[in-house]
Amino acid sequence: MTSPTSRRTLLGALLAGGALAAAPSLPRLPYDDPATYLSHQLSWQTWPYQATVTLHEPADAVAERLWPGMGVLEAIDPHTCLLRLGADTIPTLVWMITSVDADFTLTHGPPELADALHTQATRCLNAVQGPPHTT
What we know:
This protein is α+β, with helices and mostly antiparallel strands.
């Protein structure tokens, strides 16, 4: 990964319309084009709450259900992929993760995200089974 200083230098060169080939001191982009690089850098990493989930579907099947800027999708193998995303609140992360409409495993995230996902799962289960009886 490039350092923040290197990223600022690269971003400045890109915004100024400078040719990257003419600047051999700049780091090589980890992606094929500057737009993809900037999209990955500016999506999930800028949010105060970040998570990574393993989706139990192929990346190409999931990609069509994501909106631009939602996060970074990476294929793991032909059957699973990683989704890295960020949001301003934990409830928003829960909504984003579940809106993908795929089975998933929480791979990394703040501790309160697991609690929020459990709460949402209980809420959904109660919607079809009825709330637990208290006596």
